[in-house]
Amino acid sequence: MKKLINDPLNVANELVEGLVDAYNGEAVYVGARSLVLKNIQDGKVALLVGGGSGHEPIYHGLVGRNLADGAACGDIFAAPPPDIVLEATQAVNRGKGVLYLYGNYAGDVMNFDIGSELADEEGIPVKTVLIWDDVASAPPTEKHKRRGIAGLVPVVKLAGAASQTATSLESLEATARKAVLQTRSVGVALAPGAIPATGKPTFDLEEDKIGLGMGIHGEQGVAELPMQTADDLTPMMLNLIFEDFEKDAEVAPLSAGDEIVFFVNSLGATTMMECLICLRKARQFLTERGLIIHDVIVGPLVTCQEMAGISFSITRLDKELKPLWDMPCQSFCYSKMAGSWGA
Amino acid sequence: MPKTALDAPQVISMLQEVCQAIIAAEPLLTDADRALGDGDHGLGMQRGMTAALEKLGALDPESTGIDKAFSTLGMAMMSTMGGASGALFGTLFRNGGKAIAGNSHFGTAELAELLKVGLEGVMSRGGAKPGDKTMIDALHPAAEKALEEAAAGSPFAEAINAVAAAGEAGRDASENLIATMGRAKTLGEKSLGKPDAGACSVAIILRTMAEFSAK
Fold this sequence. Notes:
The complex is a heterodimer. Chain A is an alpha/beta fold. Chain A has helices at 11-23, 82-92, 106-121, 152-165, 169-181, 230-247, 272-288, 321-326; strands spanning 27-30, 34-37, 46-53, 64-65, 70-76, 98-103, 126-131, 183-191, 209-212, 223-226, 259-266, 292-299, 308-317, 330-331. In chain A, 31% of the residues lie in helices and 24% in strands. In chain A, helix 2 crosses helix 3, helix 4 (152-165) packs antiparallel against helix 5 and helix 6 (230-247) crosses helix 7. The N and C termini of chain A lie far apart (43 Å). Chain B has a single domain (8-214), classed as DhaL domain (Serine Threonine Protein Phosphatase 5, Tetratricopeptide repeat, Alpha Horseshoe). In chain B, helix 7 packs antiparallel against helix 8. The model of chain B has no long low-confidence stretch (mean pLDDT 93). Chain A binds chain B through residues 9, 52, 74-84, 105-107, 110-111, 113-114, 136-138, 145, 147, 195, 197-198, 200, 202-203, 213, 215, 217-222, and chain B through 30, 34, 37-40, 43-44, 47, 78-88, 125-126, 181-188, 190.
């Protein structure tokens, strides 16, 4: 795999430097490898995201206006070390504490936990909300085992909006938890990405197979399906999300009249053409079931290098979440104007 | 000639050899992790051990305690690796190092204490138990063996050789386990037949320590 890089072991640092350039002054490079908004209001409850690099434009690309205040950036596909989490925490804290909001991966949990212990020793209050939207990674009774995938984009969008007016760390935590609970995703992989430093593929998948439930880090999926058309695959994937809302005692089933944000994500190499063809089928499926699509996101936002694959995420809005969704936001990864497109 | 116990300069040299062995094993560790995880374990360990090599080289062998040598290794790994490996291997050597603070020599008793306390730290941080197909499946039998050897008062070079063998047996046995932790857990039964990458690293670390001690 040809990649335009320099020292393969310095990829993460250089990409975050480039990201700072893309922010054009809106965000700055802090400490060993954090990205932090230049202007964070005093007295604001801070929102910190983070995770391994190599999945751009997330996670660090979600630093922005009405989004995350900062990101702790790990090396390629690896959680940020505790020192980086602490530096980012210190940089975003404005006296009201910091909410950590990130995908549920063992490495991230351990390193952010050590980071929060270090922050606690310095008197900075920290709460943690894990994102676990991947319904294929564990049953609804074992959500603590689920991975966070593309659903982190709508979740961070909602939490970022909530953080603008949150009066306490606890209230922001509660809203973020609700956003996580109402967000479910399912993904498929068609071909692996390559680890930048080695050029080796992150997994092997036969040419005529699709990996169902494959993670954004290239973890192997739970089932291999024969290659099929967009119109056959799309309903199968959406059914898994519907079944999950159905089976999960903590949420109501998805039903007619529910307002949702629908997100079609490309893992990197899957083209916009393919995303749009899937979106067309998905809209038919969702509208037939009476769901109201309040807003749509389409694009390669949660990627894994040149991995080919797609995921669908559904976020159900309620009276609290809808106005948060409608707040404008701007970042490298995701920007929107006020309201929703089409509403 | 087999060593009876290591002084601080020898511990530093031993850990430098450990770093070099892991750096050299990068392709093997990458392949092991690629089969079950996302293939980043080898590079992470290489990054951590490269940083540790520099930090260990900067220590003054005459004024450094043996605990500081181990915790320097742990801090360097934790700060530069990230990922689960950084947190867990960092915890292993930081906590294990602290447990032998004040001891002037690294012998069988210190080896047992370091592995026992290090193992406890790893289990509490990562939440895994023996049998979950993680680094613990090499570390746990190694720590058990070290405690046995310490209780029996075995000479150091023999003891660490037995501990390394127990770690290797644990690594090999991890092939027959089903992953329940980390990124490999979604594989279920597909994880059978391959050793855990973290267990491979533990086995290499212990074997390198044993080889240094036998010289």
